[in-house]
Design brief:
heterodimer, A: 406 residues, alpha/beta, 6-stranded mixed sheet, globular, B: 276 residues, TIM Barrel, 9-stranded parallel sheet, 13% strand
Chain lengths: 406, 276
């Protein structure tokens, strides 16, 4: 396995039809195949188009506020007693999460392709807000599909999207969460394929989405790689990121994949515990299958039906995962593990009280794992934890769990 | 010769068009499906599309989504679909059955095991909504090894280059999705469909079925002018939905209501023939 890993050119993945080993691909209904081909062409030409890249970089600098800081959490590191923990502050981006990196990129593509209407699915609402934001800025019509259950869990983000001019459509089918929102967005796209651009929020979906979203998010890892070397004079020993669909994780990991000394940890949501079955950890406890246009690890039953997931964090409550992660798991380049609701909530409070940073519940999973990992390492070693989003949207959830009504 | 090919040749010799109703297995209850399949044949159906439910039916509108949920409430699996086909074959050896569903249940079973069991239980063709020809090499090989016809969809957005790709892998018939959208959406535009079918026929030498948006005898008749087969889905599934809470005479009522709809379509389609 390690021989195979050493000879891999990570930058060459996926292949022309979107395959990462046996994963990925383009399993879409016929109506969308032509639109996906057109998107693939637009994405490929934008990647080598200097004007497009200049516009993207300028928007990231002046609208999003990049580069995001890499912050040495000294007090947290000291209390943990192990490795030095650095936080990649994606929570400080405009709209409060890494999601905006991708929506800027896709909105620029939509504009280049002449599309006047954008649609999106959202779980925690961060991607919905990031999409509504760019739609407002570019003057595009915006419809966001969101599970009815998530609408309750993430009320502040729903109102934010409405303020930005988006229509938020509650999805009441299936488990009423992120996967069902994705189904409904696909149905919209099939119906309005001529004038509509579907801005998928994670590194899943049919090709070219997993590769395209990764390329827009890889700015996280490129910056972090430079920043950590400036601050410590060397590469980090480990990277940690939470994984729902896996876009913040692949964004951080991808520019480091060829750096063999850098260990990587993707953290899934163990919910009430992997052994209870109430979790959202397909890489840790699922099996390969095909959903939402790509082959990947899924939470499914013996008949191939997708099963309901559970996580305290709406953004991780998804039964699939980006196909590149599925491949990175199989070849052994990235370690995938999980953190329970309880551990994530503890880390939420810990980071808030020790560093004065309120993390999103999604990112709290990465923080919890980072703390555990750091404790096993020496103070001379360094870890970068991706703080993918801020926790303001989650204060109602956290208060509710503690029996407090706001 | 496959049952599907024989069926289309028989119809063609008689200048008739195929009527293909779709039913979801075990909707609204497991005991409804088998008697309904026989009733549909008696009412004039030539081929039956038998739905396999999936938890995430992305290409379906609310009507068939609800049918999948009703079916899954009984834990309906591919094995249940095979068993239904097997029982149907005990008394009907002629009417082709096409299994229609999504890829993941087939992936989990394995292409070879799926194809073998489908064939053993009397299924003739398979439509997998989210399996495009680009990804289909192994899947098609497994189906062909068991004499099953891989049936592919063609959409209003399908380019001529893609029609060639589909022609290279499809057999039995091809399924033209008459509109951009999900199942059960608005009614179709017959003139537009006629034009598209002429283009498809330049690239694909197989019978063409037309579905999506056919809900009454009049539309069925006008589509049968240009198509080789008329596929009726949501209009039939609506009859199940209407009886989902009827516990005393559910099977008989559904069979009667579906029979009435299919007979009206059959009559309209066949009277068409005499006019031509």
């Amino acid at each position: 396995m390690s021989d195979k890993k050493d000879s891999i050119d990570y930058s060459s993945m996926p292949d022309e039809r979107g395959h990462f080993g046996v994963y990925g691909g383009c399993f879409a209904s016929e109506t969308l195949m032509q639109a996906l081909d057109e998107l693939k062409e637009a994405y490929h030409s934008s990647m080598s188009d200097a004007d497009f890249q200049a516009q993207f970089d300028a928007d990231l600098a002046h609208y999003v506020g990049r580069p995001s800081p890499l912050y040495h959490a000294e007090r947290l590191s000291r209390e943990t007693g192990g490795a030095q923990i650095y936080l990649k502050r994606e929570d400080l981006n405009h709209t409060g999460a890494h999601k905006i990196n991708n929506t800027i990129g896709q909105a620029l593509l939509a504009k280049a392709m002449g599309k006047k209407r954008v649609i999106a699915e959202t779980g925690a609402g961060q991607h919905g807000v990031a999409t509504a934001t760019v739609a407002a800025r570019f003057g595009m019509e915006c419809v966001v599909y969101m599970g009815a259950e998530d609408i309750v869990r993430q009320a502040p983000n729903v109102y934010r999207m409405k303020l930005l001019g988006a229509t938020v459509v509650p999805v009441t089918s299936g488990s009423k969460t992120l996967k069902d929102a994705l189904n409904e967005a696909m149905r919209d796209w099939v119906t309005n394929v001529d004038d509509t651009f579907y801005i998928i929020g994670t590194v899943a979906g049919p090709h070219p989405y997993p590769a395209m979203v990764r390329d827009f998010q890889a700015i996280i890892g490129r910056e972090a790689r430079e920043q950590i070397q400036q601050q410590t004079g060397r590469l980090p020993d480990a990277l940690v990121a939470c994984i729902g669909g896996g876009s913040n994780a692949i964004g951080l990991f991808h520019p480091f994949l060829a750096d063999e000394s850098v260990q990587m940890y993707g953290v899934e949501a163990a919910g009430e515990g992997i052994e209870t079955g109430h979790h959202a950890a397909p890489l840790c406890a699922g099996k390969p299958g095909v959903l939402h246009g790509n082959r990947t690890y899924l939470m499914e039953d013996a008949d191939g039906q997708i099963i309901e997931t559970h996580s305290v964090s709406a953004g991780l409550d998804y039964p699939g995962v980006g196909p590149e992660h599925a491949w990175l798991k199989d070849i052994g380049r990235v370690n995938y593990d999980s953190v329970t609701d309880e551990e994530a909530l503890k880390a939420f409070h810990q980071l808030t009280r020790i560093e004065g940073i309120i993390p999103a519940l999604e990112s709290s999973h990465a923080v919890a794992y980072g703390i555990k990992l750091a404790a096993r390492m020496s103070p001379q070693q360094t870890i970068i934890v991706n703080l993918s989003g801020r926790g303001d949207k989650d204060i109602n959830t956290v208060a509710g769990l503690e029996g407090i009504e706001l | 010769m496959s049952r599907l090919q024989a069926c289309f040749e028989r119809l063609s010799a008689d200048s008739r068009k195929a009527l293909i109703p779709y039913v979801m297995t075990a909707d609204p209850a497991p005991e409804v499906t088998l008697p309904l399949m026989h009733a549909m044949v008696a009412a004039g159906a030539d081929i039956i599309e038998l739905g396999a439910p999936f938890s995430d039916p992305m290409a379906d509108g609310p009507v068939i989504q609800a049918a999948a949920e009703r079916s899954l409430a009984f834990h309906t699996s591919l094995h249940s679909v095979f068993e239904t086909a097997r029982q149907f074959r005990q008394t009907d050896t002629q009417t082709p059955i096409v299994l229609m569903g999504y890829l993941n249940p087939v992936e989990v079973m394995g292409y070879e095991a799926f194809a073998r069991q489908a064939a053993e239980n009397g299924i003739d063709g398979v439509i997998t909504v989210d399996m495009p020809p680009e990804e289909a090499d192994e899947y098609v090989a497994a189906l062909r090894a068991h004499q099953l016809d891989p049936i592919f969809l063609i959409a209003p957005t399908t380019t001529e280059a893609r029609m060639e790709k589909i022609a290279a892998v499809a057999s039995g018939f091809v399924y033209y999705v008459s509109l951009k959208g999900v199942t059960g959406a608005a009614t179709l535009d017959v003139a537009g469909v006629t034009e598209r079918l002429a283009l498809i026929r330049k690239h694909i030498d197989l019978p063409i079925g037309v579905g999506f948006g056919i809900s009454n005898a009049e539309t069925a008749a006008s589509v049968s002018h240009c198509a080789d087969a008329v596929i009726v889905g949501s209009a039939i599934v609506n009859k199940m939905a209407a009886q989902k809470d009827n516990k005393s005479e559910q099977t008989a009522t559904i069979a009667r209501n579906v029979t009435a709809l299919l007979q009206s379509m059959r009559v309209a389609m066949d009277s068409n023939r005499t006019k031509v």
